[in-house]
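User: two proteins, same treatment. go.

Assistant:
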Amino acid sequence: MTFDPRLTPARPDLAAAQLRGRIEAGRYADGVAQEVIVGTTPVRKEPSHEAPLLTEALRGERVTIYDSDENGWAWGQLASDGYVGYLPAAALLAPGPEPTHKVAALRTFEFPGPSIKLPPADALPLGAQVAVASTDDTFAMTASGGHVPARHLAPLAAAETDFVAVAERFAGVPYLWGGKTSLGIDCSGLVQVALTACGIVCPRDSDMQERALGKSVSLAGLQHGDLIFWKGHVAIARGRNSMIHANAFHMAVTVEPVAEGLARIGAAGSQVTSVRRLG
């Protein structure tokens, strides 16, 4: 049996207890539930700040931690999409109250008190989750004592209606391999963040998305919201003639003509592998 290492909490020396008998490892651990307590934290391939960025975890996400080291790294699996990697242990704590709201703005600030003149304590990206204890006309006070502009939050169950429109809000954001926020985002991160904002469960990487999302349709009949896949890349159709994607050619989230993008990517040796339509 083959296991995807991106989604399987297993190393030669350690694996999750539920994998006992399926994957050989030096020892097995049950794991400890933790919560991301900062706006954004990296999930890396190795326990080093120089290691490749696999993805990012956002405030309020739950993580099962199987190991931690003396250098401040924790190894575990995100509950949201199952991704496995190393996170800074300082970004994690035992879970607090269940989140009640999520950030609906592209990015917002959390202040230490009810004043926009105070130095922000943190910056929260779209999709970050918080437990709101009380609200007034200006601020929502979180269970941890922070103050977030109430206008920038939405109830956890609220859903955007057009994931393409959500993606368009990221236009111009720099390209960042593994990124998931307005400070930097990659192609599959853009798709995941946009779909998640609409309440649609979405895997992290483009190959996972191609297998899991929608039904196959013809490129000739491209419609608003179709996902165009290449090997290692994905774009979102805005209609028959234009698409939006985070890409390393422009090093940004870019809206461009479909024909132009297809020609450029094709000239680089990559052809469309499928077009998927949701709904």
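Protein 2:
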Amino acid sequence: MLDVNIKKEHMKTLEAYRAGLMIKPQLRHLFLELTLRCNEKCLHCGSSCGDVSSEELTAQQYAKFLAEVKGDFGTKDKMLCITGGEPLLRKDFFDIMAAAHELGFRWGMTSNATLIDDSTARELKRVGMGTISVSIDGLEETHDAFRRTHGGWQRAMNGIESLLRVGGFKHVQVTTVVTHQNIGQLDELYKIFNEMEIDSWRIINIEPIGRAKQHADLLLTPEDYRYMFEYIRNKRIAGEPVTYGCSHYLGMEYEREVRDWYYLCTAGTYIASIMANGDITACLDIERRPEFIQGNILTDRFKDVWENKFEIFRKNLSEENEKCRICAEKCRCHGDSYHSWDFDNHEPQVCFKDILF
């Protein structure tokens, strides 16, 4: 465990750095939600994706937008994060990403991998995909039930094998959403992934957002949380490439122990997102409310929106309620993550005070 005094100094520096970001944000990650269509209907989906119809930008509109972004921001230190829905459902997916690649953007993708075979993996390599995170949410029966997709686990595993067989990608990651029902399967999943040549295993907890709100039985108990974080920490101590996601302040004991750096919600300071219809927001996991839409790339120049709007994301949520205001950890937590904040009751839906610290 890293020395507590060193952690305190790091966090103090991070607090000052965050204050600077509120004044002068730095665009680093631009998320493109290519579609809300998905061939799975996951019980936890924050965007309620599935067999839905919605407006989608055309390949030409994406190409024009990305050229504009390159002109205004450049491509250095910028990463396109491609998501959905399932991005590969778009028939013009490779046209869009070829244009991004030709413009010089680095990009990675989240996918359920059920549509990936060797041919698709070669095409992904051709158009410059550097990283991919594939969702495997339990052993076969559990995964398929959670994603409401018969045969989904096997197709996803085949997709991962195709990516590894074709090779040449910077990072192939598996992400597992931990629920109250699958938390007992972590050891068995580790054995499976350890025999593969994936680069890392990212473990994240189910969040009380989107469809997950309808399935309270899947949410983690305090005991589940403590087990999950101990499990990740022990694997990392053993030198295994296991990590927790970016969400949530974990307290002095677990910060820097279960991921490479400290908690910092960068929605609206590092991160911006373009929804499938062109709407501009911060993190795509944040509740979809009208006040969070900052503009639309079909009518607004993204640079103007980034520089002159986004105020709602550039503040301390910890000032929104009395409990957070008087908390001794508020200078490190800042009210926790935007995506799990209750904007009606002005309080965090996920807080690890009295659970981890």
